[in-house]
Design brief:
CATH class of the largest domain: Alpha Beta
CATH topology of the largest domain: YojJ-like (1
Largest sheet: 7 strands, mixed
Distance between the termini: 39 Å
Number of domains: 2
C-alpha cells in the first residue's frame, strides 16, 4: 500500500521541480500539457485501456525529442538558472537593504534629471557571478555618487550593467543576455531587453533608467513594471528582496 503512495509523492516532487526549472519560459505552457497527459497515461494503465496506453507511450517518446529541439533556448535558460542558484541563501539585513535602496533612489532620481540611462541588477537568490566576469570588478560600497559616476555619459562603463551583491557594487560594465521575447514594444531599447533577458535566466531585480524617456522601470522574473515613481520602485524592490516566496 505504501509503495504507490511513495511513487506518487516522488513523481509530483519531480514534476514540481521541472515546472520551477522552466518557470518564466514559453516551455512552461507545454509542460503543463504534458502533466495532464501523464495523469491520463496513468489513468489508462489503471483502467487497462491498452490501445490508449500504447498511443500515449509513443507520443511521449516523440515529444521528448521535439521539446529539446523546439525549446532549446528555454532549456538553456533553465539550465543557467539551475546552475546559478545558491546552495545556501545569502540575504542582506533590512537596515543594509534600506541604505542601499536610499542610495539607489537618490542615484536614479539624479540620473533621470540629468537625462542619463542606467541598468542596475540586484542579486537575490540566483548567483550573478557569471555576468560579473564580463564586466569590471568594483567591489565598493553602494553610494549615489558611485552609481551616478558609472552611468555618466561617455564613461567607459556606462553602456553595461551594474551588479549589486550583498549590499555592495560588485562590478560595472557587465553584459546581460538580451531577451528573445518578440512581443516587447520597439520603444524599448537595449537596456530594457538586457534587463528582461537577465530576469528570464535569474531572479535578479533589475532597475532601468531610460535615457530617452527619463523614467524608471523595474523588471523581475520576466515582467516589466514601467513608468514607476521613485517611491513605488523602491517599495517594490524592497518587497521582492524581503519576500521568502517569489513576488507576483
Amino acid at each position: 500500500m505504501w509503495k504507490p503512495i511513495l511513487e506518487i509523492a516522488i513523481l509530483w516532487f519531480v514534476i514540481y521541480h521541472i515546472m520551477l526549472f522552466f518557470e518564466g519560459t514559453r516551455a512552461i505552457q507545454v509542460l503543463r500539457g504534458i502533466v495532464i497527459l501523464l495523469a491520463a497515461f496513468f489513468l489508462f494503465q489503471k483502467l487497462g485501456l491498452e490501445i490508449l496506453d500504447w498511443l500515449l507511450t509513443k507520443v511521449f517518446a516523440i515529444s521528448v525529442i521535439a521539446i529539446l529541439i523546439i525549446f532549446h533556448p528555454e532549456v538553456r535558460q533553465g539550465l543557467a538558472r539551475l546552475g546559478q542558484r545558491h546552495l545556501f541563501g545569502a540575504g542582506i539585513r533590512e537596515e543594509e537593504l534600506d541604505y542601499v535602496l536610499r542610495e539607489l533612489g537618490n542615484a536614479t532620481e539624479n540620473l533621470c534629471k540629468n537625462k542619463a540611462g542606467a541598468l542596475i541588477a540586484i542579486e537575490k537568490n540566483d548567483s550573478l557571478n557569471a555576468f560579473i566576469q564580463s564586466g569590471v570588478i568594483i567591489d565598493g560600497r553602494v553610494s549615489s555618487d558611485l552609481i551616478e559616476t558609472i552611468f555618466t555619459p561617455n564613461s567607459l562603463l556606462h553602456d553595461g550593467g551594474v551588479v549589486i551583491q550583498h549590499g555592495r557594487v560588485s562590478a560595472a560594465g557587465c553584459l546581460f543576455p538580451l531577451t528573445e521575447n518578440q512581443d516587447l514594444s520597439r520603444i524599448y531599447g537595449t537596456r530594457h531587453r538586457a534587463a528582461l533577458g537577465l530576469s528570464e535566466e535569474t531572479d535578479a531585480v533589475v532597475i532601468i533608467v531610460s535615457e530617452e524617456r527619463h523614467d524608471l522601470s523595474l523588471v523581475y522574473l520576466g515582467k516589466l513594471y514601467k513608468d514607476l515613481s521613485r517611491e513605488v520602485m523602491l517599495s517594490r524592490v524592497k518587497q521582492i528582496m524581503t519576500a521568502e516566496k517569489k513576488y507576483a
